[in-house]
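Field notebook, page 197. I keep forgetting to write these up properly, so this time I am using the form the group agreed on. The chain and the ligand, guanosine-5'-monophosphate, are recorded exactly as supplied. Prediction of the bound pose follows.
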Amino acid sequence: MNFLEKRILADGIVKPGNVLKVDSFLNHQMDIALIEEIAREFRRRFSEKPINKILTIEASGIGIASLVAREFGVPMVFAKKSKSINIDGEFYVAEVESFTHKTINRVIVSKKFLSADDRILIIDDFLANGCALQGLISIVEEAGATVEGIGIVIEKGFQEGGKVIREKGYPLESLAIVESMDAEKGAICFRQQQNMK
Ligand code: 5GP
């Protein structure tokens, strides 16, 4: 078991509705030493890629992506949730359905901060059905930029997002993949992965 899986077992709470709460170390209170270790692991996994920018989505991706960006020595951009109806041509736009809140958000990235020569590593905290990721991928592709990799902290492998993204050929690395979880027993099982210290 890797350092992240151990931490999820120790402090993660399984909620009804297939939700894993990790707000004591990742989503609300943040354990910076742990997130630094996560950032180093992403750096190791994507060390061969010519990444020049990190992209994430607000809000919970920002803290993690910041430390990943520092590890790579590149800027970080986050897609913002926008309520305004009149978005002029200055932004790339995607519609994203929130798994946790069941709402549809329009997310935007300014065209100033994403262009065709950018080589992007997308970072997010969770991968469930993949809506957040699909939105970020569509923004990168609309800009004509390249998705060099996708780094996810916790993938819920029993939901289809990871399968769909891998089938499309994107290099997706999830540091912990939850294979199953049980809210009544509080049990969490991980998919076996080879490539992590
Ligand atoms: P997706 O778009 O892949 O369905 O969901 C991804 C987003 O929903 C993540 O950015 C994350 O914020 C949130 N999310 C999905 N599942 C969970 C979960 O089990 N626990 C927590 N804390 N957030 C989740």
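OBSERVATIONS:
- The chain has a mean pLDDT of 95.
- The beta strands are 13-15, 19-21, 53-57, 76-82, 91-97, 104-110, 119-127, 146-156, 172-182, 187-190.
FOLLOW-UP: compare against the apo run.
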